Amino acid sequence: MAAGDDLKLIGAWPSPFVTRVKLAPSFKGLSFENVEEDISNKSELLLSSNPVHKKVPVLLHHGKPICESVVIVQYIDAWADPGTGPSLLSSDPHERAVARFWAAYIDDKLVASWMQSFRGKTEEEKSEGTKQMFAAVETLEGALRECSKGEGYFGGESVGLVDVSLGSLLSWLKATEMMSGAKIFDPVKTPLLAAWVERFGELDGAKTALPDVDRVVEFAKMRQAQAAAAAAASEN
Q1: What is the pLDDT of residues 222-233, one digit of tens each?
Q2: Average pLDDT over residues 198-207
């Protein structure tokens, strides 16, 4: 990418939504300036760039902000030169619509249930979240079978929007497996997804963008300890 293209990403490394945005330029072969945000003390740059949600990620292109991870990924794909890396969205209108549907499903169903399994206030809430998470994974197994058309990715022969959307969660999902002992992408129950996880993780763009799983585990344990301490303090 030419120096004058001026891409700046406001983010925080633990966020899978920030990872999602990092994956897009990584696959496209684009460079960007990473601005690490302190979520506990949000900067004026973040607040002024995303005054509605006040959340990361925010992409600044020539100083103009673009917010929401899936929107940013599509912006990068549309803005980058056609010959720059794989096209993350098909030129076919129906295939684009299908990809956007599954990208939304990942956030609405998989991410929401995973967060409930991780942050639920009661064991019952966590158990229900885990149940819904595995149901979403099984649904995505069928989506991969349909969208890949026998190739290796949701995007077919190369990664697409759905691959980026799901791939951005892999470090956190693997960390969850390590902490819970449960196999989220089971080679027996979801063989296509299990193979996809390995295939995606070996891509250079994924290796560049995905955070280290051990670091994610350490961060997750720290957050759990902070939440437990806060809960104990509120009871006293």
Answers
A1: 998 988 888 778
A2: 98
